[in-house]
Amino acid sequence: MPANKKNIAPSGKKRMSEEQEFEIMKLVLDKFLWLGFGVMAFGLYRIIFDVLEGIALMIVGIVVLLLFTWIIVKEYEIIK
């Protein structure tokens, strides 16, 4: 019988500690941050050629960053 029996869920999969879960969540949310910033930067570049397309891309970037913020607030308690 394995010594880490308490780390195995009923489905047979290993459970992660809170620290491991937080590290994975940071990696995923970091990708949202880069994606949102990249879309906004590309929108700023596209404003040079077509103002409406550039503004639309910047709005998409803002939506991605707001989604990022919503996920953080929903998943983790913010300590003051």
Sum this structure up briefly.
68% of the residues lie in helices and 0% in strands. The chain has 80 residues and is mainly α.
Can you characterise this structure?
With 80 residues, the chain is mainly α. The chain has a domain at 32-80. Helix content is 68%, strand content 0%. It is built from 2 helices and no strands. The chain has helices at residues 18-46, 51-75. It starts with 17 loop residues before the first helix and ends in a 5-residue tail after the last helix. The model has no long low-confidence stretch (mean pLDDT 80).
Key descriptive features of the protein:
0% strand; 68% helix; 80 residues; mainly alpha; 2 helices
SSE sequence, one letter per element: HH
Mean pLDDT: 80
Secondary structure category:
mainly alpha
Overall 3D form: rod-shaped
Quaternary structure annotation: single chain
- Extended strand count: 0
Distinct helical segment count: 2
Radius of gyration of CA atoms, rounded to a whole number: 19 Å
Q: Which residues form runs of ≥5 with pLDDT under 50?
A: none
Beta-strand residue percentage? under 5%
The percent of residues in helical segments reads 55-70%
Sheet of most strands: none
Spatial gap, N to C terminus: 43 Å
